[in-house]
Amino acid sequence: MNDTAVSTCVVTGASSGLGVELALEVAATLDFTTIVLSARRRERMEALAARLREQRPELDVRIVVADLSAPDGVDTLFAGLDDLLPTVGLWINNAGFGYRGPFLEQTAQELDRMLDVDVRALMHCTRRVLPAMKARGSGRVLNVSSVAAFSPIPWFAVYAASKAFVLSFSEALAHELAGTGVTVTAFCPGPMPTEFFDIAGKTRWHGPGFLWITPRKAAREALDATLAGQAVHIPQRLFVLQTFLSRFFPRGLISAVSGRIFRD
Ligand SMILES: NC(=O)c1ccc[n+]([C@@H]2O[C@H](COP(=O)([O-])OP(=O)(O)OC[C@H]3O[C@@H](n4cnc5c(N)ncnc54)[C@H](OP(=O)(O)O)[C@@H]3O)[C@@H](O)[C@H]2O)c1
Questions:
Q1: Rounded to the nearest whole angstrom, what is the distance from the C-alpha of residue 143 to the centroid of ligand 1?
Q2: Whether this model's pTM surpasses 0.85
Q3: Which of 12, 49, 92, 244 can pair with 61 through a Cys bridge, CB separation 3.0 to 4.6 Å?
Q4: Which of 94, 122, 243 to mutate to test the pocket of ligand 1 (most atoms within 8 A of CB)?
């Protein structure tokens, strides 16, 4: 990020997990002068802002409280940016969550909330931030997807489908924007020990430890892939192999295997 016109990085979902580590890593390693943290829980972001200011006292850290599942959530976030929008060099669409369970036992409100945050808000934030980047001829958008994007997942059906949207949308945009100086990256991690699993199904992930990636390591890899302008990045080698091999198996078999893992 050596372009002097770009001085701002925006991180959504900056109150916990991967979002916190992304903000810390951006502040530690990139030369943005302003970082905007957004999520619903202000106290969490204030604690993070204090850490960031300790790390880099000259950094301008701003907090925008916005509920991205609300109809006006994206408007609230962009209103909170004031005049910073033209200076955004890196926009990180990280906010997201998934409810696990049988589709028919999930309420319409739960399903809407998931799609509102994981898909609708991500798409509208991207649509609003890209014009200034394109006009300037530089900018990066990092969209946090998941390895769940690569296969249907029974008992996590809507979440997996929402992440498949993020992957497909990001890849398509990366192509549309080729040669403009603006890049879009879909980051597709496997399981990370964050609050995600508490929200997903009130159960902890109990897969073997070697499948985990720490949010800190994931954040570093996500930023490296974004700065390199990669369209898609899967951080764990095992999942790179799994997503590659899954192309050669029938989708019905993939559903059966992932269903076994996610049922309980
Ligand atoms: N953990 C995993 O195993 C895993 C694997 C693959 C992909 N991912 C993806 O990684 C991203 C980060 O998740 P995480 O693992 O760091 O989980 P997390 O610790 O639960 O963090 C999720 C973040 O999203 C924000 N968020 C949730 N609902 C929101 C809403 N309505 N409006 C605004 N912000 C909202 C949360 O902030 P507030 O609650 O304060 O609003 C929080 O900062 C998500 O997109 C997730 O789907 C996670």
A1: 12
A2: yes
A3: 49
A4: 94
Q: How far apart are CA 166 and CA 243, in angstroms?
A: 16
Domain ranges of the chain: 8-263
Q: What is the pLDDT of residues 8-47, one digit of tens each?
A: 999 999 999 999 999 999 999 999 999 999 999 999 999 9
What is the average pLDDT across 211-232? 97
Ligand 1 atom showing the smallest separation from residue 70 Cα: 31
The residues, any chain, with a CB within 8 Å of residue 178's CB and separated by 6 or more, are none
| CA of residue 217 to ligand 1 center, whole Å | 16
The dihedral built from the CA positions of residue 154, 158, 160 and 161, taken in this order, carries a sign that is positive
Q: How far is CA 264 from CA 40, 51, 110, 143, 155, in A?
A: 30, 38, 20, 29, 9
Where is pLDDT greater, at 210 or 184? 184
Check if the beta carbon of residue 185 is closer than 8 Å to that of residue 141: yes
Cβ of 68 less than 6 Å from ligand 1: yes
Which residue type sits at 86?
P
